[in-house]
Amino acid sequence: MKLTLYPKGVRQWLWALIRSTLLILAIMSGLFPFINMPGSSYTGPLPPLSEQEQHTAGLLEKHVHILANEIGSRNIWRRSSMDSTVSYLDKVLSDMGYTVQRQEFRSHEVTSMNLEVEIPGHLYPEEIIVVGAHYDTVSNCPGANDNGSGVAALLELARLLADANPQRTVRLVAFANEEPPFFFSNTMGSAFYAARCRDRKEKIMGMLALETIGYYSDEPGSQHYPFPFSMFYPDTANFIGFVGNIRSRQLVRHTIKAFRNHARFPSEGLAAPSFITGVGWSDHLSFWRKGYPAIMVTDTAFNRYASYHTPADTAEKLNYERMSRVVTGLVPTILELANQ
User: Fold this and answer.
1) CATH of the domain at 72
2) pTM greater than 0.85 (yes/no)
């Protein structure tokens, strides 16, 4: 008996097409609440960098070079590198005029610290927007993109927001210990920070985690996704992503809407169940666990970046001009969140 895997005849092909179409429609309708975002992603040639954006690009490159090339791998197995990173971040922020607060904590028999600076809100100081990035890396990885790019962006946001007068308080936080063996546990630096926020009954209105934001490509096929998102998102890795869980959907929508209103740079948004691979893979997870809305701002890391978590994650692979466009677009985005 001969079996065939293909439809035979016009009628069978027609029914196969109908079934396939219905399946695609079912998937689309089911995913619509997750992928439906306000506004439109920027398309077309990128405009020339402004003088401010050029300056920002230079500072971003400087910070990443120091973190990845001079300090190098930053984790609990290289205590001196963590100390050097803390000293560097403290000096840069202090030189901007900030008072740097340190949160020391112990996990895995190691003392580590988060660094925090604050821009007080003038109308609703008790309502807080947190922007954070982790400064550690996996072992034997210079961590230019993961997460030197996020830390560099945090420092540059601090500089650009230094004279702001937001209605809500804005906090900028550098977290220790996001990577293994801390990853996905309550021993992450951000977990200690979020727990302290909850213990103090602080009103965190939204948290943005800056996670690997430095790699971009215009090559078709350079962007990948977990199934079935490749059906709905572009296959070119030229955009910045805003990612949250279902409970943070409104924060994702508000943030990407503000970014699209202010930045001429491609952007995509997703609010999806946290069990989908990668959706919760950064410090925003710690805030979800304490009941706070939180999202990740990301270039999607391993979904486009071949050097992710390898010794090849080096400073020269990043695109600082595009990073600059993202960072300068985040400034009015953060202020819009802080002034709602």
Assistant:
1) 3.40.630.10
2) yes
